[in-house]
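Justification of resources, computational component.

The compute hours requested in this renewal are based largely on the per-chain cost of generating structure records like the one below. Each record pairs the submitted sequence with a full structure-token output. That output is archived, and it is also reused by downstream analysis tasks.
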Amino acid sequence: MGRRAVLRSSRVGVYAHLVHGRRLGRVVATLIVTIGVLAVPVASSSASRPRPKVPATYAIGDSVLLDAQGVLVHLVKKLRVDAAVSRQFSDGLSIVEHLRATHRLTSRFIVFLGTNGPIEPAQFAKMLRELDICKRVVLVTLWVPTRGWMRANNDLIRTGPRRSRHVVIADWTELARNHPGWFYPDEVHMPIDGPGATALAKLLARRLG
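The structure output for this chain reads:
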């Protein structure tokens, strides 16, 4: 083989090597880009999901709280009232547990429960533990003079401030006792937004601070 043939053969080999190298480089580059794309984290669907709005104050209670609801929402801004007829303390505890589990407990909380039956001490203690992240908890004493559990429930409710520094008492018992004309014949319920309901709403608003 002559010198020219050798040079031509060498050039062909070098050219083939360069072409192969370029192709290999493009393949590697493609792989790097692909891996990079796959490595980009996908935004979680929960990140784009709007968080539920949490009011500044939450009031949970039974039908007596319903009587005062209309006035109370005008006195307390950003308030949600959750009241129901015949609600038991245990029902309210379940609601509070759910609110805490879903990160929807408010900074201020009113508990007006115990009109419809005895409060179990263990459930009362559990309620205070669930609410211990609130800045202010208002416990409302009861006025249900025709029921034997009123006194025991009120005695238990009044222990709240000793158990938690965030707890204050709204003494509905003493206020109601001196105004029998506020009530219907059952001595428990009042005309909606009437004088008694208005007095109750103002009491709760003051104790929220």
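The mean pLDDT is 84. The chain has two domains: 3-40, 57-208.
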